[in-house]
């Protein structure tokens, strides 16, 4: 079908149950942004059960939707430039003009393109945000306010919490991957296998995959994608050491820094302690990571991470998660689930702009104007606070 030219006003937004073709455009950037949009996608699917649903989003996030049989088509975008983004959206509308387009994206002229092509669209899901409403919940509320979903669909989306769909084989591989990691001596005891004899094993794993001490495994996610969103490296090392000393099996996701490397520090500053020898999980694709997180959730495990895609993915897959927030405001970008804790550093930061984070002085520069050595907001979160949150989540379920 060719794209239809504009003749007069744009079509009215379709009422719940009437759309036959819906195009969702999620091109904000990282796959964590796609996860924020999942409840809105769930609500649209519930409100328009007979619609063919298409999603345009960036890789690698597009891979996360691969097993969802409710979707007619997932268009994976690799080029983030404005011209490429517009061309991809235009091509998808030319392929089949939707009854409704919903976009979380306002950059690259996407709203203007939808208007020029005469597509009925919800194209401003960022309008007038308050500082205390979660972004994912607000997307759903605005869809309801615009009349394209009903109350029941909105409630269903909230109940499902945007959980991803995995094939049975992916869940099995996730369980095997996690079991292999937990069977590593370095993971269980915090000791390099070269320095651990049979006498150091101390009982190994129970049949549930926990060490005989009873604590579930904890996976750390130190990498945050942006330097301004990273908890200080020495805090991660201290947290790992304290967890290991308390008998928790600890592993971590890979990051550019070797797991046992001495951190580099400027001349004249004290050298930070190295990472304890916890296991580093093998690098994997997002679907493999989702399967591993699903298995971790089944075992009652926990994740600690920053405001980053992998941490949000763990929470989406049902893992008890402690998330650390600095430049972003947890009341807007937090995980907000019954099995998560959002820790906000420096709540009264004078630099933070809760409803316009990308305009903050620190955002693109990566430099905190309050502390030249590290983000003051994240440095405000202590290791003790994180330990207390881990114990709280462990007791709560």
UniProtKB/TrEMBL annotation:
Example GO biological process: lipopolysaccharide core region biosynthetic process
Keyword line: Glycosyltransferase, Transferase
SUPFAM superfamilies according to UniProt: UDP-Glycosyltransferase/glycogen phosphorylase (SSF53756)
InterPro entries: Glyco_trans_9, LPS_LOS_Heptosyltrfase
A Pfam family annotated for this UniProt entry: Glyco_transf_9
One GO cellular component, as annotated: cytosol
Chain residue ranges for the region called Disordered: 193-212, 252-273
Gene Ontology MF terms in the entry: ADP-heptose-lipopolysaccharide heptosyltransferase activity
Protein name in UniProt: ADP-heptose:LPS heptosyltransferase
Organism per entry: Parafrankia irregularis
Lineage: Bacteria, Bacillati, Actinomycetota, Actinomycetes, Frankiales
């Amino acid at each position: 079908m060719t794209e239809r030219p504009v003749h007069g006003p744009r079509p009215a937004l379709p009422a719940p149950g009437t759309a036959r073709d819906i195009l969702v455009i999620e091109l904000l950037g990282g796959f964590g942004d796609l996860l924020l949009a999942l409840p809105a996608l769930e609500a649209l699917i519930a409100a328009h059960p007979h619609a063919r649903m298409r999603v345009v989003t960036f890789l690698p996030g597009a891979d996360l939707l691969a097993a969802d049989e409710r979707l007619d088509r997932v268009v994976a975008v690799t080029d983030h430039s404005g011209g490429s983004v517009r061309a991809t959206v235009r091509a998808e509308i030319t392929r089949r003009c939707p009854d409704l387009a919903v976009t979380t994206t306002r950059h690259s002229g996407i709203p203007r393109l939808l208007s020029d092509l005469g597509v009925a669209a919800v194209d401003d899901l960022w309008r007038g945000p308050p500082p205390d409403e979660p972004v994912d919940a607000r997307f759903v509320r605005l869809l309801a306010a615009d009349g394209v979903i009903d109350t029941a669909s909105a409630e269903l989306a909230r109940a499902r919490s945007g959980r991803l769909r995995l094939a049975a084989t992916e869940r099995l591989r996730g369980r095997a991957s996690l079991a292999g990691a937990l069977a590593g001596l370095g993971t269980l005891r915090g000791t390099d296998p070269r320095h651990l004899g049979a006498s150091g094993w101390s009982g190994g794993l129970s049949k549930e995959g926990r060490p005989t001490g009873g604590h579930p495994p904890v996976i750390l996610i130190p990498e945050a994608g942006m330097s301004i969103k990273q908890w200080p490296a020495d805090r991660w090392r201290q947290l790992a050491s304290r967890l290991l000393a308390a008998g928790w099996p600890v592993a971590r996701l890979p990051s550019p820094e070797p797991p046992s490397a001495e951190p580099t520090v400027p001349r004249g500053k004290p050298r930070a302690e190295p990472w304890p020898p916890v296991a580093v999980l093998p690098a994997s694709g997002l679907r493999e990571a989702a399967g591993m997180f699903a298995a971790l959730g089944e075992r009652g495990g926990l994740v600690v991470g920053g405001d980053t895609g992998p941490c949000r993915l763990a929470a989406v897959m049902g893992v008890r998660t402690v998330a650390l927030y600095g430049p972003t405001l947890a009341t807007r970008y937090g995980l907000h689930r019954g099995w998560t804790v959002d820790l906000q550093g420096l709540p009264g930061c004078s630099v933070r702009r809760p409803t316009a984070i990308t305009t903050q002085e620190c955002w693109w520069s990566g430099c905190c104007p309050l502390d030249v050595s590290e983000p003051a907001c994240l440095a405000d979160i202590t290791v003790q606070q994180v330990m207390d949150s881990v114990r709280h989540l462990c007791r709560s379920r």
